Amino acid sequence: MLHHIKYFLFKLKITQPSKRDIGNWVQYNYTERIEYALEHGNYKTRKLAAEALGLLGNNSSIPFLLKAIDDKVHNVSIAALNALEEIGNQDELIASIIKKRFNWAKLIEEKQAKWEANKYKKYTIYRWERASKKSFDRVKEQLKKPIR
Asked: Residue 17: which of 1, 30, 33 has the closest Cα?
């Protein structure tokens, strides 16, 4: 009964469903509610909803998950990819999309790991001699000499 009230409050945009609420929706097989949460929730709710749709494994959820792949939050798109992989549809187009997106996600994670590894590394950067600095130093040295 409480999960019905939570869903009603979520539709009114008063509250967001928790992990426990989405778990109840999975238990009672409320796919429509989870799909609605995937479209209209905050980033945590969208991530939980994508994971829940992967657990349910309904082929009717594939369009919602394909839309969630292009989410602006990286964790949501990864959760949608994992859910699509769990559903395991035999469609070649979806398989190629998943493969390309996983490669994209892997590249982003590698860049992040490389950045984290080199974050505190100190580099010696050589300063190239600039013509203006060189000429300024030359004029400065000439001014130090006595005038004849």
From this structure: 33
